[in-house]
Each structure stands twice: as C-alpha cells, then as structure tokens.
C-alpha cells in the first residue's frame, strides 16, 4: 500500500504486484469503483505481467477533493504516478468504463509510452443527458441502494455476492457527495474525432447486454480508431470484469501476446 502526491493535499493510492520481469500492465478502474474491482483479474494477470493498479482521484483510498475535478486531473495524476515509479515505456493500459476513457486520453497524449490498450465498455463522448441521468439516480437514492443498483444495472447475470462486493467498494470509501462530484468530472468529454490519429493497437471488449455503455458506444470508438478490434461478449453486462471475468481475462492476455515474440 503506497501513496503518490501529484499536488499539495492530494494523495493517490496505488499498488504494484505481479511478475517484476514481465511486461508492464496498468489497470484503470471505472466510475465509483476502485482498484479492488480487479480481484478476478489479478490471479490471471500477475504471473505474466508486472501490474500497477490505483484508485482514481475522488475514489477509493485516494483523496476526495473539495474542489471540482475533471478527466484532465485523472490523466495528469496517472502521468505523474507513472513517472514517479519510472514506468514510461511499453505499457499495456487496461481500462474499464471511465478507465477506458482515461486510457484513450493517455494514449493520445503519450503514444510513445504505450504499446497496446484495452478499452472495455467505454465511451469517447459523454452527453449532458447521461451525466444528468446518473446525478439524478444518486440524488434520488440512499447511497446503499444506489451502490447495489450499480450491479442491478451492470451485472449480467446478476450475482448477490458480487453485487455486495461492488456495493461495499462504494459505501466503504465514498459519500453521496463524492459520487456526485466523480460523476460531474466527465461532463463535456468528447475525444471521438481525436481517435483517428491514434495508431496504438486497441482491443475494445463490450458486453452485449451492457445498458450503461451500450454496444453502439464501443462501435463508435472502433470506427474512429484505425488499429482497433471490437469484441462483443454475449450475455455480458457492463461489469464484464466481474460478470464474465474468464472471457475478459483471456481476451486481454491473448491481445497482448498477439504479434509479440514472447
């Protein structure tokens, strides 16, 4: 358990694990979750890869700022953290949902540092309607009910034990105010046209039954990215890292090995 401070009064929680001699993999979690959400990926990835996972600003064990923050802050925090630990080349970025959006921006701005990316169940554009919808669901529910609702909406098939795990990730570390602020951070996000200049190979897995970031959103990313592969996972929801971990893990590991001599 370690912390990196990108600026005064901000601390970013991170952990490094896995094979120190393996290729570097950076796991970037989604909205409201934290780095604990990768529990079903770590056993599959750690033998082959050297893994960094961290809690985004405003999430988990990282600082919850009082002032508004944006995706710009997420990307800057990640850039600073990676430089802090001297991970600045041949990176494999694996982002889920919001984490995929952050990975895309990072790749656009630092292409020489990134070898490949996975952008799972994500967006290249966030509408104000989408932001308003999530803000409304937070405001109209108790935190505990909202936290369970993340899995009700996002997990296919729904699983009580996993839903409790997700809810605890949220309620142990975030208040309703934290959730509102984290949601607002994505307002105005639109990088779709920028993606045509990104030459990094990108895998785009998405659950066929994802209603949070529907298949069309991943298809849009795929259409803009010149070197991308879209993979639709049948019967999976938004939380594919939890509801279909084996399929997700196999896709991620296979995509890294493709065209590589190892």
Description:
This protein has one domain: Alpha/Beta hydrolase fold, catalytic domain (Rossmann fold), CATH 3.40.50. The protein is built from 10 helices and 8 strands. The protein has helices at 42-45, 71-84, 98-109, 128-139, 143-154, 160-171, 176-184, 215-224, 240-243, 245-257; strands spanning 2-7, 10-18, 24-28, 50-54, 91-96, 114-120, 202-207, 228-233. An 8-stranded mixed beta sheet has the order 1-2-4-3-5-6-7-8, with helices on both faces.
Computed CA radius of gyration, to the nearest angstrom: 17 Å
Strand content: 15-25%
By secondary-structure content and strand pairing, the structural class works out as: alpha/beta
The low-pLDDT segments are: none
Query: What's the total helix number?
Result: 10
CATH topology (fold) name: Rossmann fold
Q: What is the number of strand segments?
A: 8
Question: What's this entry about, in short?
Answer:
The protein has 262 residues and is α/β, with parallel strands linked by helices. The protein has one domain (2-124, 190-257): 3-Layer(aba) Sandwich (Rossmann fold).
SSE layout and pairings?
Blueprint: E1 2-7, E2 10-18, E3 24-28, H1 42-45, E4 50-54, H2 71-84, E5 91-96, H3 98-109, E6 114-120, H4 128-139, H5 143-154, H6 160-171, H7 176-184, E7 202-207, H8 215-224, E8 228-233, H9 240-243, H10 245-257
Parallel strand pairs: 3-4, 3-5, 5-6, 6-7, 7-8
Antiparallel strand pairs: 1-2, 2-4
């Amino acid at each position: 358990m370690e912390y990196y401070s990108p600026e005064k009064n901000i601390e970013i929680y991170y952990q490094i694990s896995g094979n120190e001699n393996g290729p570097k993999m950076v796991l970037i979690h989604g909205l409201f979750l934290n780095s604990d959400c990768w529990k079903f990926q770590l056993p599959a990835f750690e033998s082959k890869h050297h893994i960094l996972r961290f809690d985004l600003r405003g999430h988990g064990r990282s600082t919850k700022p009082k002032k508004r923050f944006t995706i710009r802050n997420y990307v800057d925090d990640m850039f600073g953290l990676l430089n802090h630990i001297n991970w600045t080349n041949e990176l494999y970025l694996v982002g889920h949902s919001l984490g995929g959006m952050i990975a895309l921006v990072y790749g656009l701005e630092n292409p020489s540092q990134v070898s490949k990316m996975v952008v799972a169940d994500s967006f290249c554009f966030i509408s104000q309607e989408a932001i308003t919808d999530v803000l409304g669901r937070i405001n109209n529910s108790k935190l505990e009910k909202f936290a369970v609702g993340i899995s009700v909406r996002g997990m296919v098939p729904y699983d009580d034990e996993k839903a409790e795990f997700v809810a605890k990730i949220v309620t142990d570390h975030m208040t309703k105010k934290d959730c509102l602020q984290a949601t607002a951070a994505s307002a105005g996000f639109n990088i779709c046209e920028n993606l045509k200049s990104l030459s990094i190979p990108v895998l785009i897995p998405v659950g066929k039954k994802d209603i949070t970031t529907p298949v069309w959103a991943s298809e849009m990313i795929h259409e803009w990215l010149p070197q991308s592969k879209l993979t639709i996972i049948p019967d999976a929801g938004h939380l594919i890292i939890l509801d279909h971990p084996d399929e997700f893990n196999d896709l991620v590991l296979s995509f890294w090995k493709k065209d590589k001599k190892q």
